[in-house]
């Protein structure tokens, strides 16, 4: 007997949004830590550090995210190293996030007026204190709209996790569509949930950007 898509089916799909949100947040945090290291390497005085960071960014920005996820999940299994679904997804999404956040934050660091860095150098302030107390707080403020915007794209990108077997929001919608044979209602509900997750972030990003422009 074919089940109609009703409230209980909607709750089933909605309940799996928690894994979409969790994967997005973990990937943002771990990718953000790595992204900060990439941004600092990209803005360092060391030529080989800049080259290594630029190469890293080109690799992860220049290859499809789905291929990266397949590599960490299926490819490493063939090599005898299994990370599991969650491990492979977190590694894949985190490295993907670090490449994009590294570039976003690199641009923000370079947007901080160089006169402040020169003044800090003249006062004998060391690199760590200069970055922590002077440059990075201003760079974070500049990068905030773009960072929130990237988070929205990351949340939507987690739909690819369904292709390696994680039952998150998109995969739960696919399963329910197969049960109910009502793909229009099912995927409409999935799209609505994605919208409800992403719209507040998109709205916040736009408001932050307007505030920053007004404060200039």
User: What is Rg?
Assistant: 21 Å
Please indicate the count of domains.
1
End-to-end separation in angstroms reads: 63 Å
Bin the strand percentage. Answer: under 5%
CATH topology: MetI-like fold
Largest β-sheet summary = none
Q: What class would the helix/strand composition place it in? A: mainly alpha
Characterise this structure.
The protein is mostly helical and 216 residues long. It has a single domain, classed as MetI-like fold (Orthogonal Bundle), CATH 1.10.3720. It has helices spanning 7-15, 17-42, 47-61, 65-78, 84-111, 114-122, 127-157, 169-180, 183-215. The longest helix has 33 residues, at 183-215. The mean pLDDT is 90.
Helix and strand topology:
Elements: H1 7-15, H2 17-42, H3 47-61, H4 65-78, H5 84-111, H6 114-122, H7 127-157, H8 169-180, H9 183-215
Helix pairs in contact: 1-8, 1-9, 2-3, 2-5, 3-5, 4-5, 5-7, 6-7, 7-9, 8-9
